[in-house]
Amino acid sequence: xxxxxxxxxxxxxxxxxxxxxxxxxxxxxxxxxxxxxxxxxxxxxxxxxxxxxxxxxxxxxxxxxxxxxxxxxxxxxxxxxxxxxxxxxxxxxxxxxxxxxxxxxxxxxxxxxxxxxxxxxxxxxxxxxxxxxxxxxxxxxxxxxxxxxxxxxxxxxxxxxxxxxxxxxxxxxxxxxxxxxxxxxxxxxxxxxxxxxxxxxxxxxxxxxxxx
Length: 212
Fold this sequence. Notes:
The protein is of the alpha+beta class. It contains four helices and twelve strands, in the order βββββαββββββαβαα. The strands form two sheets. It has a six-stranded antiparallel beta barrel. The relative contact order is 0.17.
């Protein structure tokens, strides 16, 4: 599990295209400290597994499903990426619960700079709007953010100077893709409420069965 608090701005150093996957080599001195084979590292919000580790670089294999559901397929050597290690038990939850399982890809629609922050408008793909609410949480390229405005097919976020300077969101321009992960709690609540609504009349819920 991650929290959406990016630890460093890393860089793609090599991309190898395989038959039904890609192998990425990435540089990140902070996240590779103490890293070992099998560890997880979030890359632009996508949870990847460390295959090899050498100095301040690591490699990770990305299967076709992940390439189809995220923007990782657009990365090339030199691309900047947000990197985060999983949170440790007992650490502060600085952002919100992030799984590293990208739901879809949005597009930066507009940027409006001001003196101390910047408002960024991002498109919402079909099916995700119901999980996004004003002042709720959303993950954009692995960054835990608060929704400012939630529209039917877009949302806006307000970025402080630190986020602009230390993550890819400071360099994304209109038309650029971004990985989106909505709040997993909202998805579970929807599923549970749907199951309850579909249950036969008189059927007990799991919670009711426990109470009995």
